[in-house]
Amino acid sequence: MYSLLSSQTFSRIDLYEKIIFSYITNDFFPWVCFILLLNRKNWKKPIVLILIFHWFFRATGDVLRAVSELFYKPETVPLNNFIIMEGSDDLTNIQWPYTNERWMVGNAIAHVFWFTGEIIGDWYLYIRTKAATTNRLKNRIVLGFCLAFNLSKLFAMYTYFAYYPFDLNMIKDGKYFNGLLNFNILWWSTVVGYHLIGFGYDFTVIYALRTELFDKLKEYKTFKKNSFVDKFKQISELRIFTTMIATLLFLPIIVPIIIIYIKETKNKHVDGVCKDPDPLRQVPLSLCYNLIYIDQILLRNYINGPHNNRNYKNN
After folding, report:
1. What is the pLDDT of residues 53-62, one digit of tens each?
2. CATH code of the domain covering residue 24
3. Number of C-alpha atoms within 13 angstroms, CB side, residue 123?
């Protein structure tokens, strides 16, 4: 009994530490510190504020997810006697997050903050594109896709409230029951939608920056010693161009997997690679949002360097 109480005490202490240090342990915190160091005399610039608020809202979502783990959790019973789906040994009679209160704080409201951070971060590419090209038509097209991308993520927030409250019991009348079925279908359909809109946003950014990038690459041809890495460090458009292409290449992989997952969810059968596509969904997001910090750090370092002979001061 003492061992159990001691374990629960340490578990809550770990949760309190997780909550307190969530802003520091967030993946983007080191980047923010570096950005503030480089822009300590001019940290109120819009581009810098975007990076700061992106980290803050994403980290706040992490805090809420950790806070929800402090809420009451009912006792669960393993469903070893029910053949529900392949790999079901870890299933219990109540679905995660076990209560509607946990869902509201650690999932619904947390995703509001996570998506708000993403929406703020999504404006970085538009601002950089606008700074790099003076073509009004291209800028308007990029702006249109940026706004559409934002709206798709606002709808993604809504999906977490659409069917609330949920019946999280896994067994009803002696049969398997999935109270999150409608949510899962709506959520993953929305994910496919905003990934496709994100594809359009990335493509328009690449199209808008294409001329400016090729012009700068022509300039660098006169310096044979400049490798791709050197160019990557010095040309912001090349960094954005490269990352956007990598993100686009990932799209044909993740969208079919999500579509298969939706079909299997409808059939109450989920297995293999489609059991949880969310980690896969996070890969292009992580790549893109880490880029914006790296791009700003390298850009600021280039501006402050003695070799700079261009006017990037407004970027």
Report:
1. 999 999 999 9
2. 1.20.1070
3. 17
